[in-house]
Amino acid sequence: MYKLSACCSMTCGISFQPKMVLPSLRVQKQGNGHCTNVPRNVNLEKLQNNYLFPEISKRELNHLDKYPNARVISLGIGDTTEPIPQKISLSMANYACALSTADGYRGYGAEQGNQALRKAIAETFYKDVVIKDTEVFVSDGSQCDISRLQLLLGSKVTIAVQDPSFPAYIDSSVIIGQAGDYQDKTGKYQNIEYMLCGPENNFFPDLATTPRTDIIFFCSPNNPTGHAATRTQLKQLVRFARDNGSIIIFDSAYAAYITDDSPKSIFEIPGAKEVAIEISSFSKFAGFTGVRLGWTVVPEELLFSSGFPVINDFNRIVCTCFNGASNIAQAGGLACLSSEGFQAIHSVIDYYKENAKILVETFASLGLKVYGGVNAPYVWVHFPGSNSWSVFTEILEKTHIITVPGSGFGPAGAEYIRISAFGHRERIIEASRRLENLFSKREALFNFVE
Amino acid sequence: MPLMSDLSTSMISSSSSAFLAPISFNSRAQTVSVPVKSINIVKCVATPQEQQTAYKTNVSRNANIAKLQAGYLFPEVARRRAAHLLKYPNAQVISLGIGDTTEPIPEVITSAMAKRSRALSTLEGYSGYGAEQGEKALRAALASTFYRKLGIEDDDIFVSDGAKCDISRLQVVFGSNVSMAVQDPSYPAYVDSSVIMGQTGQFQKDVEKYANIEYMRCTPENGFFPDLSTVARTDIIFFCSPNNPTGAAATREQLIRLVQFAKDNGSIIVYDSAYALYMLDDNPRSIFEIPGAKEVAIETSSFSKYAGFTGVRLGWTVVPKQLLFSDGFPVAKDFNRIVCTCFNGASNIAQAGGLACLSPEGLEAMQEVIGFYKENTNIIVDTFNSLGFKVYGGKNAPYVWVHFPGQNSWDVFSEILEKTHIVTTPGSGFGPGGEGFIRVSAFGHRENVLEACRRFKQLYN
């Protein structure tokens, strides 16, 4: 019916993505198949590749096909592995059972979320900074919230992202029509401002050289670098946004992993309520990656240039394009924020943090430059002069460990590998063993050890 | 309203009671969309609020959202209901407005969800991220339950958190440069999502329509099926059958014409079949029963009205492999990209419930609940018939579409609310073609439906 013509580009200068693995997205109609007369969305045509994480999954599957007996260890996609504390899952089970009773049945919930849960989120995470429950919008997770925020903002705003950054910010921006074309040479989409974050600038962009954009996506603790911005850095960021009349979208999904006294919320910075939206999630906090629960805070003080409150429009989007997070998931969320649940969750977080520590120590002991892993469940390892997809492939081939190549997060990630610290302890330890084994052999590709 | 004032006491045991605090009316009493205390902030109007001294960013408001005329319809109905309750705190308000299910979910389904929840606390049973397209077993069950012999395969099916979200995701796939047609009247999410996406022009107050949307009038006169010979070509055609709000179900012959129309025009039909299981007559339950539909249609559906999953959140969308954009690119590939990038899968617990719904026991149990609501519908239809009204729908859908010729539907809505404390939905909320009609939904406890009918008889006799 249609044939896919394989892309012939095997090398394209600095290859930020290995285009050879992906057939071209151009298809040719063959035979008698009917084509509609509906034009494809040009914004989707601009997207260069599959979304990063399904691509990693695909590679994992291909690898398993090739080595069916390999004991693959996944330190790629940041997927939680440890069971949810019983008190929380029981509360969800009870809620589900109650849906079969006359008293316990609930239909549509408020699109903004269950009142008690909104209040609990406000009181647990924002007590000192005085965010109201009415400013908290419960969702089915950050990935969805990011796209809903893009729908809110529309195609005519400009965005800045950290480089490297979680790919959903860029991809959703392209999809909604804010970005220009992708440039192979730079590995960047036109019209998006990429704010370099690397060891040389302490993983915080040089704002003095950053042009103004309407929106600034900022993730701290950072995925993928693991860096948690300091209070000073965030004050600078808020000042920058204020001076430029920009809106910060602050992703605090990993705040619970912070070890030092780095701010856990942008709203800890005075003046932030007038310039920032914060998104967060129960995914990495409570192991809710499959259960689906998150939230977004839109302060009442945040206004468009006309003076119109952003919260009004976000509420409209939430009421029109969404129908609330699952009530069962919300019941679980409420249990997470009870004192008992909260404690149990932090035990699991500590477990992952210990994993991160082990991985950091492993790489450091091999003399590799390691970043992150202290305030976030990600370890960011530098392989100077390398191509991260090649390193990814080499690690996969030789140790059967899945990681994520840094270039998947932006051109500044080109020489880095992200290792996620989610996994059963024994697998983390086994992975460390295999990595030690690999790198101490000093393979030609890996002579980055000083 | 239950407020958790003391977090330090064990919220585990009290949390569920807070969640399950009994409500005295059968609707969203404490879950009204617009929080009363900040009603002056979250208004459902589009007028900007100038604040002289407050800091303003330099980010322009999205002009598309500014085009929206008012709040989304159902929160607006909820707001009126809440205001009514403030006025009459002792009124026994009966909600036949928002189509919200009221009957408990059958145990075979909730026990599966409880089981999945508990399993998440075990090593063997814990699962993290699921496939964004949905769990394999559920996709397979959907294919074999609803699309057996229609040539729809498991991987044509994308599980979601509901039709409303799917509609917006489809709009994101299509982008702002497509034109769309809707039935008039129709479920407001089609129009509103189109406006938000930037496909439309401004709202034209004189005709109550957004420019650049083709409104296909559906009236008693044309049997609630548009006269396609007078419909201009659009890229996308939203079509809901059985219809919300009119309750009309398109016949096979009508759908054959619709598919032909789409084929001739190179259009894509987005077919909303959320009420298919309410069908009494022998009409198609899926657009894919029509030959050739796979090349012109997407179908979206939901567990909301089948399994009472309005709060649990589960639905699905079918995008056949054969559906191609004008350049030959498969629509399913772009939909998949959106699903992977803008979504992260429906809740695994909800999906476990969905699988149980589609077991033989689950299907039987769902049919029982659907049957209950259908009996409600019969009672409401009989009532309005006996009062001499022209009544439509109610046979193939849980909605009764009552004609009030020459009257303004918001006025009728208000009068009914004021005089009988019954919440309905004004027809004009669904488009100009709904003016002069009231939608009465048939979801409710039997005694409430009976009581409502008693009050209707009192008011209109």
Commentary on this structure:
The complex is a heterodimer of chains A (450) and B (461). Chain A has 13 helices and 17 strands. Chain A is an alpha/beta fold and 450 residues long. Chain A has 2 domains: 137 residues, Aspartate Aminotransferase, domain 1 (Alpha-Beta Complex), CATH 3.90.1150.10; 251 residues, Type I PLP-dependent aspartate aminotransferase-like (Major domain) (Aspartate Aminotransferase, domain 2), CATH 3.40.640. In chain A, helix 5 packs parallel to helix 6 and helix 11 packs parallel to helix 13. Chain B is α/β, with parallel strands linked by helices and 461 residues long. Chain B has 2 domains: 109 residues, Aspartate Aminotransferase, domain 1; 255 residues, Aspartate Aminotransferase, domain 2 (3-Layer(aba) Sandwich), CATH 3.40.640. Chain B is built from 14 helices and 15 strands. In chain B, strand 11 and strand 12 form a beta hairpin. In chain B, helix 6 runs parallel beside helix 7, helix 6 crosses helix 10 and helix 12 packs parallel to helix 14. Chain B is globular, with a radius of gyration of 22 Å. The two termini of chain B are 37 Å apart. The interface between A and B is large, with 140 and 140 residues.
Most extensive chain-chain interface: A-B, 140 and 140 residues
Strand order, main sheet of chain A: write it out: 4-12-11-10-9-5-8
Q: Outline the biggest β-sheet of chain B.
A: 7 strands, mixed
What portion of residues of chain A is helical? Answer: 25-40%
> In DSSP terms, counting alpha (H) and pi (I) runs of 4 or more, how many helices of chain A?
13
Report the uncertain regions of chain B.
1-43
Beta strand % of chain A = 5-15%
